[in-house]
Structure formats: structure tokens, C-alpha cells
Amino acid sequence: MIEVTNLTKRYGDHTAVDHLSFKVEKGQIYGFLGPNGAGKSTTMNIITGYLAASEGTVTIDGHDVQQEPEEAKKRIGYLPELPPLYLDMTVEEYLRFAAELKKVPRQERKEQVDQVMGMTQITDMRGRLIKNLSKGYRQRVGLAQALLGSPQVLILDEPSVGLDPKQIIEIRDLIRELGKNHTIILSSHILSEVSAVCDHIMIISHGKLVASDSPERLQKLMSGEGELKLTVKGSFEELREALDKMPGIAEMRQLPGTQQLPGAARSSDAQEENGGICDAVIKTDGEQDIRESLFYRLAERRLPILSMTLSQRSLEDIFLELTGETSVSEEDEGKTRGRKKKAAEPKPAAKPEADSGEQPPRDKNDSGEEA
Fold first, then answer.
1. CA-closest candidate to residue 76, choices 150, 187, 173
2. Is the pTM of this model over 0.90?
3. From CA 54, how far away is CA 8, in angstroms rounded?
């Protein structure tokens, strides 16, 4: 459906997109990920024909964006991060204007406007001025605009930015529904949203494609060694002897200290009475899942498993590794060290907000007046 070949965009000495190539298959939802400045928005703007590439080609359903811009753009609906809205128009006026710009036949405009308002659930807002709408409804109006003309491809740049949790869920459900009839490229910083909605994920860093696969396969390919945390009724020596030379185990170590189990304190007397309780970590080879065979082997040796947890890497971990970003845990650790160093220092008195000369933003009611 979309084929990007050797795409490059330079701004002077800075290369925003560096020889990027990928294909987007019909009827799929693609997640387009990357840190700020990675080239996501630039790539989307080139695909839509808004920007010209320095090198390379983009074809939409066989039509080159630069050579046949009108035919290519007919097949694309685009929602930028900041929707291009005319705030002094009503919702219906704006959508009719957008339909005219997209050259929707006059006799079909009313039907299409009604249809996209129904799909995005803004029919009740048709007579409202756009400037009086909430952020969530403005996003819906922008999405309705992108749907006009029945495009085969939807390109959505941060469609849920600035929305509250309820609005994010609503937009996510809407994207899933639209994915039944459209090919969608979705850019987002909310990785849980991408993982929940998308069939395929592409990650770019410094303008280059560093990963392209389904969320499930990406997690498997990047997992490497698995890690299994065990709490067993017995000593670590008994556990090590029971699992000696068991296939699939790369390494095993005992965790220091004791873990408090729900409903019962694990005192030293209790451990002596029941033969001891040990916590251990087992690293497995590759993608091998040894939990079932591990259960039967320890049951044969009469070493009951009190808890067993398989650690899996999240999409956030994979994203941070592929893009070379600092992990959240490292940042938190640094902040913790900083707090410890400053713990003895007295905190300066907080300045009142009025000293800065700035006033906090005031909410506005539906008529646009300050509450």
C-alpha cells in the first residue's frame, strides 16, 4: 500500500531522515515510534506530500507522491499533531469546507459530513463553534476531517496528545474500529497505546529504522535470556541439586534476605520447622519456557514451589535499548542519589506563584468566557 525507498531529508548540515526504507501492507495498523527528534513527523509530512524529500521516493498505492501528488493525496487522510482547525467556524461548516477542499462531489458532501461526524461521535456538536470545544472534541473534529473523501490510508500523528485517560481510551477504540476499513500509520509516545492497538511496530532513531516487526515478535526477539524468580520450600543446596544439568537453565543464584509471604511471617523458627525457604533466580537459554518441566522436577524431589514469576521485557525496555535512551530505572536511581546528598540541606521557602508575574491558566466555559 505504501512503499518508502531510500528516503532522506536534510536541513542544511542536519539529516533528519537518513535513507529510510519500509513497506506498509494494506489493512494493517502500524505504530511509528521514536524519541523526540528521531524524524517521525518529518517522515509523515513527506509521505503526505507536505514536505519534499532530499532523496528517495514514496509511493501510495503505486502513485509517486512527488510525480503524481493529486492521485497519491486522494488516498491519504492526515491528522497532524495540531489539527488544522478554523476556530471561528462551527463543526459542520468546517467539515463542509474541508470536503470542498478535498474535491468531494457536491452531491455527496452532506452525506459524507454526516457519516464522518457519526463515526467520530461529534454529531451533537455540529452547530458548536470549534473554539468552544474541549481538546478531546477538537481531536475528533480533526480526525473527521482526515476521514473525508474515504481515503484508504490514515496517518495519525500523536492523536491522543493532551487528552485525559477517558478520551485516550475513546480515541484508541475509534482507531481500532477505523482499522477494519483503513490502513493506519500511528505515531505516539504512549507505548502502551501502540502495543494495544497496532499490528506492526516500526522504531526509528536518528532518522534510521532500527526495528520493524509485530509487538509480540519484537518482544521475543529482544528478550534473549529469560529470568525466572522462584520461592521454594527447601534449602538452596537442595534446589541446586534437583535442577543440576536440567536442560534450558543457563545460570542459577540465590537471592539474599527473605521474602515476606502474604498471610504468614517467615521467621527463623518457622524456617527451621519446615526445612527452610529459599528465593532464587534462574536464567534460561533463549526463548525456552521451562516452567512446566521445572514444576514436575521439583514436585518429584518434594520441593514445593511457593511462587514462580517469569520476568518479561516490556515494549518500553525494548524502545529504550534500541534508541539508546536512558532507562527509567537509571534516571530514578540518579534522582534518589541526589535526594540523599541533599537530605541534610534545609529547603528554601517556596515562593508564592504571584512572584513570577504569571497567572495559572483559567478554565473556560462552553461560550468561551472565563469561569
1. 150
2. no
3. 6
| Cβ count near 300 (within 10 Å) | 9
pLDDT at 361 over 80: no
The answer to whether residue 13 scores a pLDDT higher than 70 is: yes
Within 10 Å of residue 119's Cβ, how many Cβ atoms? 17
d(CA 119, CA 127): 17
Q: In what order do the strands lie in the sheet with 55-60?
A: 14-24, 2-11, 55-60, 63-64
Q: How far apart are CA 68 and CA 333, in angstroms?
A: 53
d(CA 314, CA 330): 16
Kindly report the number of other CB atoms within 10 A of residue 166's CB atom.
9
The three grid cell numbers given for residue 13, joined into one nine-digit string: 548540515
Could you please report the per-residue DSSP string of 103-157? Answer: T--HHHHHHHHHHHHHHTT-GGGTTSBGGGS-HHHHHHHHHHHHHTT--SEEEEE
**What is the number of other CB atoms lying within 10 angstroms of the CB of residue 191?**
19
25 touches 1 (CB < 8 A): yes
Question: What is the DSSP code string of 266-306?
Answer: --HHHHHHHT-EEEEEEEESTT---HHHHHHHHHHTT--EE
Distance between CA atoms of residues 241 and 236, nearest Å: 8
Which phi and psi angles does 48 have, rounded to 5°?
Answer: -80, -5
User: What is the rounded CA–CA span in Å between residue 327 and residue 342?
Assistant: 23
The candidate with the shortest Cα–Cα distance to 264, out of 296, 307, 309, is 307
The answer to which of 53-67, 89-103, 212-226, 300-314 has the lowest mean pLDDT is 212-226
Sign of CA dihedral 323, 324, 329, 331: negative
**238-243 long-range CB contacts below 8 Å, 24 or more apart?**
238/301, 238/303, 239/278, 239/280, 239/298, 239/303, 242/297, 242/298, 242/301, 242/303, 243/282, 243/294, 243/297, 243/298
